[in-house]
From TrEMBL:
This is Dynein regulatory complex protein 10. Belongs to the DRC10 family. It comes from Circaetus pectoralis (black-chested snake-eagle). Component of the nexin-dynein regulatory complex (N-DRC), a key regulator of ciliary/flagellar motility which maintains the alignment and integrity of the distal axoneme and regulates microtubule sliding in motile axonemes. Gene3D superfamilies: 1.20.5.190. The keyword Translocase does not apply.
Length: 400
């Protein structure tokens, strides 16, 4: 209570005003852009958290949503079901199959993200529809609500940080450090005095049964101790005020230097902002040109694909006609092949008969040749035999 002076109260009031972020005003376009982005993100989070509720009651919201959003939501539901089925099967399949499933899971995850972006784009394009859906499908999942609330707190924190300049931030930090140091010193002094007072009380309780003059001496010593403590507190307070003035002067000098640095950095920042805005304008123009080229290429692609489709239909019609002719020719070929096989079979049989007859003729010719040779040999041998007999007969007659 001895430290709660009007000067300290005035310092505390000024500190609370300095620490209050509501006293600051946004003076930067970048700050407004950042806050706008955070607000749009919160709106997207709120709408994305309502998508499961809308899909569950799609029949009730179909007339309100329209065919395009309804079809996108149906497609999103199909992708969600496929994702759940794939995750369930991923826990049951073996390792090799699981690797393939993980690849499919990554691809399906990308498709699901694209589906969510398309649904949010279509919903946020109609603010009245978004407002109506917030009133109709108000129920959200508790984790989504917690996340949205945490993101809102993050947005408020970012707003407070963006609305607080670096100089004010340093002043707050320095002021809090000074207050903490002063509180620490006062607490140490109070603790020491309380310890001395407790020691004196214990001493008085131990010697309470002594003589009255001893009690009077103790009271006198306690009064002297209180005076000494009061004088010590006054001295500590004076030293603290002196130190505070010195630190205030040093802080003002630092603030002046920092203000100069801030002005220099502000000039650099303005130059960078101008440079970045010029580059941003150039990039926007380039983006417009690229988008125009993309639209032209898409139109050219549609035209080429139309021509290719017409050409494909003509080729397909010619192919169908030729395929019908080919089927007729294949039928004729099958008949001709059957007739050709029959003719070949007849030729083969005729050839075999000719070969068999030629073989028999050759055998008979060879047999006849051999018989004739044998017969000629027989005739020659018979002729020679008769001649020999005649020669032998003549020889016998001459000898007689």
């Amino acid at each position: 209570k001895g430290l709660a002076t009007p000067e300290n109260a005035m310092i505390t009031l000024d500190a609370m005003k300095a620490l209050d972020p509501c006293q600051l005003k946004p003076d930067s376009m970048e700050t407004e852009r950042i806050i706008t982005v955070l607000d749009e993100t919160i709106a997207k989070l709120e709408m994305s958290s309502l998508i499961p509720r809308i899909i569950d009651s799609l029949d009730r919201f179909a007339d309100m949503l329209g065919p395009e959003i309804t079809n996108n939501l149906i497609e999103h539901q199909k992708l969600s079901n496929e994702m759940e089925h794939l995750l369930a099967s991923l826990e049951e399949e073996d390792t090799m199959r699981a690797e393939e499933q993980r690849g499919c899971l990554c691809l399906l995850e990308q498709c699901l993200k694209c589906s969510v972006r398309n649904v949010l784009r279509l919903l946020l394009a109609n603010p009245s529809l978004c407002q109506a859906l917030k009133y109709e499908a108000w129920a959200r999942e508790s984790p989504a609500e917690v996340f949205i609330k945490a993101f809102g707190e993050f947005r408020n924190f970012m707003l407070e940080r963006l609305l607080t300049s670096p100089v004010e931030e340093e002043e707050k930090i320095q002021f809090m450090e000074d207050i903490s140091l002063q509180i620490k010193k006062n607490t140490e002094a109070i603790t020491a005095l309380q310890a001395e007072l407790a020691a004196a009380i214990r001493t008085r309780e131990e010697e309470i049964h002594k003589k009255d003059n001893v009690i009077k001496d103790l009271k006198t010593s306690m009064q002297d101790l209180a005076k000494v403590c009061k004088a010590g507190i006054q001295q500590i307070k004076q030293e603290g005020e002196k130190q505070q003035k010195e630190e205030l002067q040093a802080s003002q000098a630092r603030c002046a230097r920092l203000q100069q640095d801030v002005q220099q950095l502000g000039a650099q920042l303005d130059a960078l902002v101008l440079e970045h805005r010029a580059s941003e304008l150039a990039l926007r123009k380039r983006k417009c040109r690229v988008e125009t080229e993309i639209v032209n290429w898409i139109q050219k692609y549609d035209t080429d694909m139309g021509e290719k489709q017409a050409e494909y239909e003509d080729v397909n019609a010619a192919y169908t006609e030729e395929k019908a002719q080919l089927s007729l020719l294949m039928e004729k070929r099958a008949v001709l092949l059957q007739e050709y096989s029959q003719i070949e079979e007849e030729r083969r049989i005729c050839q075999e008969k000719k070969e068999q007859a030629l073989k028999e003729f050759t055998t008979m010719t060879l047999a006849a040749t051999r018989i004739q040779a044998f017969w000629r040999g027989y005739l020659v041998r018979s002729l020679f035999k008769s001649k020999r007999k005649k020669k032998k007969g003549k020889g016998k007659k001459t000898k007689k």
